[in-house]
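A quick aside before the break. I want you to see a complete sequence-to-structure record at least once, exactly as it would be stored in a machine-readable document. Don't worry about memorizing anything.
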Amino acid sequence: MHEALTVSAVASYLSELLEVHPLFGDLWIEGELSEFKRHSASGHCYFNLKDAHALLRGVMWRSDAARLAAMPKSGDHVLAHGRLAFYVPRGDLQIYVDRFVPAGAGLLNARFEELKARLEREGLFAAERKRPLPPRPRHLLLVTAPGGAALQDMLTILARRCPLVTVTVVPCLVQGERAPDSIVAALYQAYTLSGDLIILARGGGSLEDLWAFNDEAVARAIFASPVPLISGVGHETDTTIADFVADVRAPTPSAAAELAVPALAELHEQLHYTRLRLQRLVDQDLKHRRDAVQSAHALVERHAPRRRLARDRQQLDDLARRVLRAAHMATERRRLALQGLHGQLEALSPLATLARGYAVVRNARSGAVLTSPHEAPPATALRLTLRDGEVAATVDR
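That is the input. The structure line, written in tokens, reads:
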């Protein structure tokens, strides 16, 4: 016989077992609410969750109840999310609920909203981390089912719009239990292929068909992409977690292909405008250089040695003419002055007086000019200077 256990020991063991078991710490339970009450004082909610064969007591704390969009009531068929616990004092098994979802919305929708809210809080959907698509990708990677219609549609559109782009298909499963692991593996394989743009795509289907693209591991693999990624999953009305994480969401795989590459007509138009712009730039540059050469030529012409020599020669000729003219005028002035002096000399010259019949009388012995008869007593020898020569004479009285 085994050793007997106390009621407290058994109850505590059950409580600990429920706390450590991974299944009971995070689960959804579907059932009908009964005896639903919210205490006005505490704000906590107490209720039963039951189906045709069993009943489970439940509690929702005030903080969780405050986040409910609408308060449920007895008789509602719901999905309840929470954790199982064993309430030792009363020996009750109960669920602590943090969320109610109407059963009609489905468990998948509830899980979708839960994962979406958690990843959004972590920043996986942040707009500031979204990258722009390359305008002209050279290597495009398609992560999708290898035999699906979605792939054929994308290849047709890519060949029509931009046949020059290199396309590599990275195959994966897009539906079923193994699809999330297959998509994650394909994405990480694509990251090693040196592409500059990735499309993750599959055709339309039900929520269950597209569920692989709502997987957390797939979302985190998309978030890890080293290059921009387009999601093209389902139809226009379908939205997956992959769409929120991707850099760009396309409503369909075909639309994703349209977004990924420019059409040939667009490339031709861009090339045309680029050519016109380059021509304008070349013309402007040539005009600028031509103007610069002309300005330099004019500057050289203004400062050319031959032009400077011509200017200096002109200046020298002008200066020579001015010097000659000044010398001529100075000479003329001196000639006229000399003529005046000559006239004065002529007028004052003794020779002029002599020409009129006068003579200069000198003492023949002393040569002194006599100005009075008393200076020449009788027998004084004289020398008379006439206009044309000299005459000797003697005073006789």
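Two observations worth writing down. Residues 353-394 form one domain. The mean pLDDT is 88. We'll return to this after the break.
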